[in-house]
Amino acid sequence: MALLNFKKRDAGGAQPVNPQVEAFLQGYSIEVMPRTAAKVDDFRDLLPAGTRVYVAHIEGTPIEEMVATAKRLNDQGFPVMPHFPARIIQDKATLADWLDRYQSEADIKQALLLAGGVKTPFGEFESSMQLLETGLFDKAGFTTLHVAGHPEGNKDIDPDGSDKNVSEALMWKQKFYERTDAKMALATQFAFEADPIIEWADAIKAAGVDIPIHIGIAGPAKLQTLIKFAIACGVGPSLKVLQKRAMDVTKLLLPYEPTDVLTKLAAHKAENPDFNITNVHFFPLGGIKTNANWAINNGGASAKPVNS
Fold first, then answer.
1. Residue-level pLDDT at 16
2. Which InterPro entries does this chain map to (predicted)?
């Protein structure tokens, strides 16, 4: 197996790695889909040992493909966290079947629970809270359960533009976290500005939410690609960062990189060790290999054990 060079980016006169960013990237996770994962021959060539890999379950993807992808990643030594989108799960029997398949065929015991992007539920579930309330995850031995976080709100959940429903759901998740033994984290939608992310993280902590945050970050990508995904995913005010960049002819054709947002977040974390953002979660919108190489070049060359 050919291994990539995990040395710091300091050879050939290149910019050295920012030590704060390097520390912030330790234990990062990354998201794949079965069709994108199939393009990677061996993830051990790209990711540090122990990197958590989320497997996104998009509407129409057969559960067989999801489980096969999870098994392949697990066999290569990576902790795997498949998505469980509530709105595409028809009933408790379907949920129980998925849990059994993941555990028996791929040795998976962790999951990301979310509502999902489908507007009309396929069956009886429409929120991650309903999935948690079934008790099936605990019964199946799933010990690590991540749920969604929304630094910029979510118009699907709060069509009026407020954060009322999102906030109520977050408090429900906090109470579940307090009354169960589940290891939990908030895996968030991606955003592009550090200051609003910091304000949101501080605000939910002040409100009594102490679930660790794994902040969503869009990986390197063409600007046009990123804007398309950001609009489709309902990214909020920080979308203006991309729109402003698109108006600069000198930057229009250059790929976006998450350097600025991660540098600011990492500096804040270094100055405030108790900051509730504990990990980075990458959305590799410009490709898994591109994202993995960017992480390596910026210090993300090793994984740390994570408790959430």
1. 85
2. FAD-linked_oxidoreductase-like
